[in-house]
Structure to design on (270 residues):
């Protein structure tokens, strides 16, 4: 058996930016080394999203996620991968105050995880910060439309752009983050005609989640598409049935334990 492992050769943020208008960009979230290793074979980038607060830690929203938690999961995903660009979310409260605070925290994320980029939420209001970070060596993915960190202000998760009169605000957000130097922008929870208007207007790739196939790429929360979330968002196509698979395996294990049907020691240590 060879002891050599494949070299780490990751896709970079500029390479993702160049995919604009070409083959659709494939991405998923991951928070965990073993699942990240599986996703790595197929994804152009992997997002260590702050949705991990809800998915991994049972929080009600992403607001309670800390920088330390993002760094811990970011390290796990970087360790488990060799190919995809790893993007780590900046959590609520770690970047909004001013560009200097954002730089300090984003630099810490990059140094301590080894990721290739960070993501932050907000359009026009974050443009100055995006420029500050990118000019200082930190590739930034922007995130507009439905921005879950603003959950308390929005009063819940609502699809954006249902009222056509608001479209110009989202379009201005998309242009502002592009001009500020973001290498890509997530469009979350947005009506299809709005996503279809924004995508050709800007020079960077749009990555849709609940924003239709008219984006330059797509992202889903891994646990949602694997069937591990009993109540996935309506727009999610579920590709796996892992929830039932795990329940069945745990049930069979419990039956084996109760009936002492475990392999004998000589079978185990053969
Ligand atoms: O935190 C997350 O998982 C995200 C995606 C939904 C884009 O930001």
């Amino acid at each position: 058996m060879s002891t050599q492992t494949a070299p780490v050769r990751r896709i970079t943020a500029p390479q993702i930016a160049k995919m604009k208008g070409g083959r659709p960009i494939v991405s998923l979230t991951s928070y965990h080394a073993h699942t990240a290793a599986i996703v790595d074979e197929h994804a152009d980038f992997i997002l260590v999203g702050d949705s991990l607060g809800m998915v991994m830690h049972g929080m009600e929203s992403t607001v309670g996620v800390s920088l330390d938690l993002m760094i811990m999961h970011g390290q796990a995903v970087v360790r488990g991968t060799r190919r995809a660009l790893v993007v780590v979310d900046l959590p609520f409260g770690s970047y909004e105050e001013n560009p200097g605070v954002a730089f300090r925290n984003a630099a810490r994320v990059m140094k301590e995880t080894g990721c290739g980029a960070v993501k932050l939420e907000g359009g026009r209001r974050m443009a100055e910060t995006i420029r500050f970070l990118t000019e200082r060596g930190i590739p930034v993915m922007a995130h507009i439309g439905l921005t879950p960190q603003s959950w308390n202000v929005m009063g819940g998760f609502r699809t954006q752009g249902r009222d056509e009169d608001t479209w110009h605000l989202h379009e201005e957000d998309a242009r502002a983050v592009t001009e500020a130097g973001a290498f890509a922008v997530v469009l979350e929870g947005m009506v299809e005609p709005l996503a279809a208007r924004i995508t050709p207007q800007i020079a960077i790739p749009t990555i849709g989640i609940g924003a239709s196939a008219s984006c330059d790429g797509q992202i889903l929360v891994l646990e949602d598409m694997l069937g591990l979330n009993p109540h996935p968002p309506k727009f999610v196509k579920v590709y796996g049935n892992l929830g039932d698979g795990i329940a069945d395996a745990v049930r069979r294990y419990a039956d084996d334990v109760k009936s002492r049907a475990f392999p004998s020691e000589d079978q185990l240590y053969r």
In short: Residues 29, 47, 49-51, 89, 143, 186, 188, 209, 219, 221 surround 3-methyl-2-oxobutanoic acid (CB under 6 Å). The mean pLDDT is 95.
